[in-house]
Amino acid sequence: MKITINQAGQYVGQEVTIGSWLLQKRGSGKIQFLQLRDGTGFMQGVVVKANDEDLFAAAKGLHQETSMYVTGTIKEDERSSFGYEMEVTGIEIIHSAEGYPITPKNHGPEFLMDHRHLWLRSRKQHAVMNIRNQIIKSTHDFFFNNGFKKIDPPILTSSSPEGTTELFHTKYFEEDAYLSQSGQLYAEAAAMAHGKVFTMGPTFRAEKSKTRRHLIEFWMIEPEMAFYEHEDSLKVQEDFVSYLVKEVLTHCRLDLEALGRDTTVLEKIEAPFPRITYTEAIELLKEKGYDDIEWGEDFGAPHETEIASHYEKPVFIVNYPKAIKSFYMEENPEDPRTVLCADLIAPEGYGEIIGGSERIHDYETLKARISETGLDLDAYEWYLDLRRYGSVPHSGFGLGLERTVAWLSGVQHVRETSPFPRLLNRLYP
Ligand code: 4AD
Ligand code: MG
Fold this sequence. Notes:
The chain is an alpha+beta fold. 30% of the residues lie in helices and 26% in strands. It has 13 helices and 17 strands. Helix 4 crosses helix 6 (230-251) and helix 4 crosses helix 13. The radius of gyration is 26 Å and the shape is elongated. The mean pLDDT is 97. Bound molecules: 4-amino-1,4-dioxobutan-2-aminium adenosine-5'-monophosphate (4AD) and magnesium ion. Residues 343, 352, 355 line the site of magnesium ion. Keywords: Aminoacyl-tRNA synthetase, ATP-binding, Cytoplasm, Ligase, Nucleotide-binding, Protein biosynthesis.
């Protein structure tokens, strides 16, 4: 019977065969422990010399990452976090690997990134991708269960929602085109057709930032809701993020354990989240001795980390100055220097995971803002149509998938949260 490792619990006491790779092995002159992996899980195979000398010799000669069919009897094993092991009775090698470059010793990040296509097989990288996968699944569950429809925005676009300096330019036959920075403008059009929508797709920023939070290509989840005001959107955001945390804690226990993630900090994440205004945040920073920032300037990573350190949950920084935010954000009626927006800052120094706002829904105001920003009005005619015909108040936000994965996994750098990260100096593999 051919099974997978995650099915082992149903076959205790039975002889089964598992297609697997050798992650590592250790042992003595009498017994060999084979760490097997098959994508669904990890399991130890035990080979005892006294039981079968030929099999023992074969096991001893196996190289790391050799692929094989391993046959044996499943046993319960309390010492293994997975709960089962296999008493091996047969090994059929499919392909013997030799000289696998990623050994159990420590390698530097550049070496590991050069071997990303192989590094993905390691226990920790496998765990991070499992967490990413859970977040993707739970995102769909959350929005579908709450009456949202998924809309796929284009990747090749003619306009730029988030400023013109970070655009990837390409030719679209005779025309100019850009890789999408955000699906938001298209999500707004879809919200006028469907009410509540969300997108999930790749976005691109030609940003010359080399930080542990920046990718050139990253995935964004962008909900957009008709008839939702700013405050309504904050509620969706805190419910959504709390749901993701709960789902990861429930379904990724072994992965969090493999990563050594401190889960007590995640267990405290529950809606509602605290809110602080941009102006209050500036005052807080001044009190803490940050002289390098004035009202009107954007926060850097150290500022965000300082602000977040005052809370155990993610914190919303609301009402940023209009001048440092995107053109489409609705003015704050209580202070016209600012807009109805929020950034959600994750705890533990993981930085901004969400940016969102209420959108300008008045035609003249939006048109004026597009012109003031120096954008080409022609490219936004279709977007202005949304304000010409049945415009309504609406709000939305964008959650960065990789930063959320980094936070929940507890990995320090976003390069480990994307299967094949595109970084400032990296397009290979
Ligand atoms: O704050 P941003 O730029 O917002 C938007 O693009 C809006 N159009 C979203 C919307 O309202 N629909 O990006 C949103 C999120 C950030 O909070 C961050 O989590 C992530 O996307 N992000 C990045 N992640 C990795 N690398 C980068 N270079 C990122 N830039 C933004
Ligand atoms: Mg932002």
